[in-house]
Amino acid sequence: MSEVIACIDGSPAAARVCDYAVWAVQRLNAPLTLLHVLDHSRYPVESDLSGNLLLGGRESLLTELSELDAKRNKLALEQGKLMLDGAASRAIEKGVAEPKQRQRHGGLVETLAGMQEQTRILVIGKLGEEHAGEAAQVGDHVEQVIRTMHKPILVVPSDFAEPGKIMLAFDGSPTCREGVKLLAASPLFLGLPCHLVAVGKDKQLSEDLDWARDTLEKSGHEVEVAQLEGDVEPALHQYQQDNGIDMVVMGAYGHSRIREFFVGSTTSKMIKNATVPHLLLR
Amino acid sequence: MIQSLKQNWFSHLKGDTLAGAVVALALIPEAIAFSIIAGVDPKVGLYASFCICVVTAFAGGRPAMISAATGAMALLMVGLVKEHGLQYLLAATVLTGILQILAGFLQLGNLMRFVSRSVVTGFVNALAILIFLAQLPELSGVTWHVYVMVAVGLGIIYLLPLLTTAVPSPLVCIVVITGFAMYMGMEVPTVGDKGDLPDSLPMFLFPDIPLNFETLQIIFPVAFTMMVVGLLESMMTATIVDDLTDTDSEKNRECKGQGVANIFSGFLGGMAGCAMIGQSVINVKSGGRKRLSTLFAGCFLLVLVVFLGKWVSQIPMAALVAVMIMVSIGTFSWESITNMTKHPASSTVVMLATVTATVATHNLAIGVGIGVVLSALFYANKVGRVFYVRSDLDEINSGHRRYEVLGQVFFTSADQFIASFDFKEALDKVTIDVHRSHFWDITAIGALDKVIIKFRREGTEVELIGLNEASATLVDKFAVHDKPEAVEKLMGGH
Asked: What is the pTM of this model?
């Protein structure tokens, strides 16, 4: 059974992650899993520069290092449990029957990759706990997570608002066409008015837009189409603000890594300047 | 890609650079000492250490492991250098690298599972003893000054960390003793007396040897043993670093990485090397965790040696000996001595046999080979005892006896299996029930045939039950570990 997975950490965004996950759970009628990952590589490393090996130095070093890890992990485990308990009671309060709590050791990216199969939607905060207080930034892990996962990912900012109006950033790419079909079929957006927005003007794009509008209208969405001009990211976000849109849906990382290296990635810019949740489709 | 590059290399900048510097400083005396063991100029070992360190930083499978010129390898090349000279050593080094890459592709790293813990302990202890023994020639036929210097050096190495752990104590030992010797103008043997030091960056050179079958005959045996020993030590070190840092490594990638490093080393005028247990532990202890620590250690070493060559040649051998004694003491597994009373006698015998064979032959490959064979024999002997035959008469005076065989029947327990039957008892019929036993090889099947024939010759009728279940283990590609129900069924009777 595929689940809504919410990444919970100690950041202020965790409560929002929980709220949006609950929203998705209730719309999709899917089970909720609250996940907390204990990443050992983030612990500071002790360093002893004496450069010598004493009698039995190898064995004592192993004991020393493992005891240090044991202490840190015990604390982190407990802390994580508290975070998960907090998130779980929040979810229960909002009406989710039995949120599942999971804690795993390892890197966030590998852990999520390992859970890919059972994931329906992944909900993750835009900023992790290590970045608390930094403005307009994207957490270290978020981009890596998006690139690794092949499931929809909901990246959420630090405010919650019940999504009422959604916007689909449309570029005519295969991912985006898949996105349109998904949007049309998914109970996640059932009955929500949808703005179909593209940047640029050419004939092919207009034809694609017509197709997308038909598909969405057939599934009962109220559709509004707009074609914008200018730089993709500012144009889209401007439109989103002007029209009071609560959630952006878009394809993620469509171009080759080489192009991204020179031109920069639209997806990265979109997430960086996001003020509403973005649902990224792979 | 950029993310993983950052993760693998630059995510731990400060710890890695500091640890790399500490390791580089510790590598210099070792590389010189191992060159002297091998009978080549110190620059051969120093170039090798630079080259192997840098290449394994990129190509290796275990981040934060330190590879360089090592004692284990140096001991194997003594004969080749003495009889044929440096050029043949360089060619053998390249060949070692090629063989190691082959081993990597053939996934021979997986064979490490046959090397038991006792053998690993024996290997480490033998290595420590050999490094220590190699220092003794430096201490014979010298003036009393040298002994005092070694003692003072060891004092600095072991006592300084009580005051501060901010500077590497072996470095302080070398600087203090060198400074003292130069200031007093003492006539003691120095590193400069042992041969050339690097005066430039290493250059690409093709080994100056005739490319024919005869050459191959000379270098192949040495290269082959070096391949085995190099990979053994590298795999063991990788496991040690894995344990210390609680992370995983790619063993077969490490095999190939060692190979590439040795090929580079051979062409740049360096000797063959492998991972170093002591230095890798020092790296982790100093806070090195990522590939950058290894890269930095190699580069820093070369810069130090090339630019400070004049000073390095002034280092008294006594200071070097003190550092190497520290290395051998730190490498030795002192726990293994106290463990002798706690561990089973067979594991102690395996450990001691590995040590003895290695120290006697100066060849770690032979030591490990003997250790592995011994542990396999001990294991076979032990499992052969997991075996039992019980019997009872069907009814009193009925002339029908039922034998039930339990446990493992194979070459070590086959004789015992035959001996468990009483052929002299006059019976009309025997039933041999083997469904709760395992017949592992054809020796076992042969033994069963023999039992049946013996009974028949006494005029007894034989009924055999459950042979199919018992001989399921006979097939060579016997694999049940991935099928839990199959294992359940197999072990169900026990």
From this structure: 0.80
